[in-house]
Every structure is written in structure tokens, then in C-alpha cells.
Amino acid sequence: MQSEATVAMATPIPTDTFNLGFIGAGKMAESIAKGVVMSGVLPASRIRTAVYDDDSRGEVFSSFGVKLFDTNKEVVEDSNVIIFSVKPQVVKDVVLQLKPVLSKKKLLVSIAAGTNLSELQEWAGHGRFIRVMPNTPAAVGEAASVMSLGKTATKEDGELVATLFGAIGKIWTADEKLFDAITGLSGSGPAYIFLAIDAMADGGVAAGLPRDLALGLASQTVLGAASMAIKTGKHPGQLKDDVASPGGTTIAGIHELEKGGFRGILMNAIVAAAKRGRELSQN
């Protein structure tokens, strides 16, 4: 088990050695499949899924070359790596239903929130399972994902999954005991940032800017600031100090944020979301 979070380093994998199957054809599965294809990790001809009720989902996947089957069983039988991308409340039933064809030769991956590895391994009948938690920016190739390896998942299995999920953003490896806190930070975090962008745009409007301009500036400012934090390697506090000149406009704004408890509110939001995630996973 890993005691600390580490960036998962992807190793190139031969694209002619395995097929990738998705159990569940929702938006996250679509984002992963498109990312894998667009990045050149795997051709669409080696990706498959099954669509039952919603014909439009089948059209989405077939539009970029994914092979469609009538049943999940067929997907599993024709795949070497299977990603369970179904809702948490049905993942148990789905895994148990497919258990007869989930052999140890198949690498199993779950992105179902709140479902731990011990449960997944018990339902599948073996421990070659990897749990991954991506977040919604996967839709634009900027996901923050974290994975934890099951009992019999190998280092090579982890490298393969890092390659797949590296196609939709960045991925880290961490002990599963950290997943509730990860849920509170990166899982729920995009919503906090959307609120911040909305509030910043409202502030721009209040200061006299047209709505479209205010929203565009707010969104690009958040994107640019995040890029600086990642690319410069500087501590966010140092980057903040670089902008806040003595007696200037920025420090005046920061003063107002501090009076409102801005940092404490964000910290409390993450802790509250992590606590709720822990509660849900125990139910």
C-alpha cells in the first residue's frame, strides 16, 4: 500500500495487445474513451461498450469508432481491461452479474465513487482491481485523477491505467484511505471553482463591466493562475505576493477576502465534503 500520494508515471503500452471495455456508457466513459483515442494511446477499434436503453449514447460512441455490443457480458468477453463506469448504487449488482466472466486474466478498473476495493474484489472474486477517482474536467482533458491498486494488481497494471487516465489529465497514486479527502478536494473542487468564477464575474459586473467580458476575464484568469501554479513550481503564497504590491489594488482586495474568512471557508468546504463522502461510503 502507498502511504503518500505520488504522481503516476505512464509507461507506453503496445496498442495491439489489449482491448478496452466500458461497462456503462455515460459521460465519464465517453470522456475517457475520447481522450484515449485522441491522444493516440489506443485506436477506437480496440474500445468497446454496450448500450441498452439510450440509443443516443450508442450514437455518441459509434461516432468516433467504438465497437458496440448488445450486452455487458459480450463487452467483458471481448476485452482485456474493463472499466466499470456505472453509478455507485448499481455497481455491486453489475459486478456480481458479470462475475462468471471476470477472470483473473482481466484487469478490472472502477471509477464508481464511494465503493472501496475490498468490496469490489469480493464481488469480482479476485484482487486484480484498480480503483480510480477522476473528476469532471475529464470532459476537456484536464482531469485530476487518483488511483489505488488492489491486492493482486501489478506494477504493470498500474502503469497501464496511468497511461489510460493520463490521456484525460493528470493521475496520482495514493493509499485508498485518502480517497474521502480526495473526494472533498478534487472530486467536489470543480464546483467550488465554478462558484468562484461566477462570483468574480458578478464582481466585474458590479464594477461596471459587461457580463460577457466579466465572465470571460474571470474564467481565463482562473485558468491562467492555475497554469502558473503548475508550471512555475512556485508556492501559491509566493505567486500571490508577486501580484500584491505595497498599498496597491490587489492587497486591498486580499484584505477584503481575509476579512470574510475566504481561506477558512474553502478549507471548511473540503473538510465537509470529505466527511460526507466518508458517511456515504459507510452506508
From TrEMBL:
Amino-acid positions noted as binding NADPH in the UniProt annotation, renumbered to this chain: 72
Subcellular location: Cytoplasm
Biological or metabolic pathway of the protein: Amino-acid biosynthesis; L-proline biosynthesis; L-proline from L-glutamate 5-semialdehyde: step 1/1
Name of the top EC class for this enzyme: oxidoreductase
Residue positions binding NADP(+): 23-28
Record-annotated Pyrroline-5-carboxylate reductase dimerisation domain positions: 176-280
The keyword Amino-acid biosynthesis is annotated on this UniProt entry: yes
EC number: 1.5.1.2
InterPro entries: 6-PGluconate_DH-like_C_sf, NAD(P)-bd_dom_sf, P5C_Rdtase_cat_N, P5CR-like_CS, P5CR_dimer, Pyrroline-COOH_reductase
PROSITE patterns per UniProt: P5CR
Record keywords: Amino-acid biosynthesis, Cytoplasm, NADP, Oxidoreductase, Proline biosynthesis
HAMAP family: P5C_reductase (MF_01925)
Family of the protein in this entry: Belongs to the pyrroline-5-carboxylate reductase family.
Protein name per the record: Pyrroline-5-carboxylate reductase
Organism whose genome encodes this protein: Protea cynaroides
Native organism taxonomy: Eukaryota, Viridiplantae, Streptophyta, Embryophyta, Tracheophyta
